[in-house]
Amino acid sequence: MEGLGEFLQSRRAGLRPADVGLVSYGERRRVAGLRREELAQLAGVSVSYYIRLEQGQSQNASDEVLAALARALRLSDLERRHLFTLARPAAAAVPPAPEVEHARPGVRQLLAAMTDVPAVVLGRCGDVLAWNRIGHAFLAGHVDPDRADRPAERPNKARMLFLDAHMRELYVDWSSKTRECVAYLRMLAARHADDPKLAELVGDLCVRSQRFAELWADHAIDECVAAVREFRHPVVGRMTLTQEVLHPDTASDQIFLTFTAEPGSPSAAALQLLSLSVRA
Question: Superfamily assignment of 4-92 in CATH?
Answer without folding.
Answer: lambda repressor-like DNA-binding domains (1.10.260.40)
